[in-house]
Amino acid sequence: MKSKFLIFTLLTINLFSQRTLHERWNIELKKYVDEKGLVNYYNWSKELNGIDSYIEVLQKNHPKKYWSKNEIMSYWINAYNALTIKLILDNYPVNSIKDIDKPWSKKVIYYEFISYSLDQIEHDILRKMGDPRIHFAINCASISCPKLLNSAYLPYKIENQLENVTENFLNDSTKNIINENEIIISKIFFWFKKDFGTKSQIQEFIKKYSEKKLNNPKVKYLPYYWGLNGINKV
């Protein structure tokens, strides 16, 4: 009886915490990111309390063993995006994330016994969850990246969110050029081909989300533009 009560208590607490965990991040995104995914870094760099508070909340609420896959995935996607934005803001003004020294390998979040870099969050946590759609949810603060969603990822709707961002990215002609006999696609598919599979598997993935039909097309890759995804010019 006691064990059942404990489980019920933990689940109740977790339900409440999941509803509030990403609330601050959602507010920040609504305030500084437009519908196109462009970020007002200039204004955001002058008001860091909100994003700092959110990262502090993340550090105090490391994912637990009893969290669901959707809860864990939401946590780490939001964390990756917030920590990327914070990295830009701490170094603003910059023209590109690549202007920052080793942006993906430096430690950006700290817990009691462990710390993580952006690379570790992406490669050691998110990619290992086995869902290639995460590549269209995490944002590297660059023009060629999938756009930054201006709302937080949440466990109860992350499935729909991942479907939407994947479909939007693949049908964005500035990121992928899809034609029946030739596709010129984002280098994301090249860099992470292990996640998407063989050429035919990549084509099947694209078919699922593309508005255009494919006929065993040739595959080419677009240049990747690392310029900052900002509203304001530096």
Describe the 3D structure.
With 234 residues, the chain is mostly helical. The chain has a domain at 2-157. It has ten helices and five strands; from the N terminus they run αααααββααββαααβ. It has helices spanning 2-21, 23-32, 41-44, 49-60, 69-91, 118-126, 158-170, 188-191, 193-196, 199-209; strands at 107-110, 115-117, 177-178, 182-185, 218-221. The strands form two sheets. A three-stranded mixed beta sheet has the order 3-4-5. It has a two-stranded antiparallel ribbon with strand order 1-2. β3 and β4 (182-185) form a beta hairpin. α2 (23-32) runs antiparallel to α4, α4 (49-60) runs antiparallel to α5 and α5 (69-91) runs antiparallel to α6. The longest helix is centred in the middle third of the chain and has 23 residues, at 69-91.
Order of helices and strands: HHHHHEEHHEEHHHE
Indicate the multimeric state: single chain
Q: Which percent range describes the beta-strand content?
A: 5-15%
Q: How would a crystallographer describe the biggest sheet?
A: 3 strands, mixed
How would you sum up this structure in a few lines?
With 234 residues, this protein is mostly helical.
Question: Secondary structure elements and their pairing?
Answer:
Layout: H1 2-21, H2 23-32, H3 41-44, H4 49-60, H5 69-91, E1 107-110, E2 115-117, H6 118-126, H7 158-170, E3 177-178, E4 182-185, H8 188-191, H9 193-196, H10 199-209, E5 218-221
Parallel strand pairs: 4-5
Antiparallel strand pairs: 1-2, 3-4
Helix pairs in contact: 2-4, 4-5, 5-6
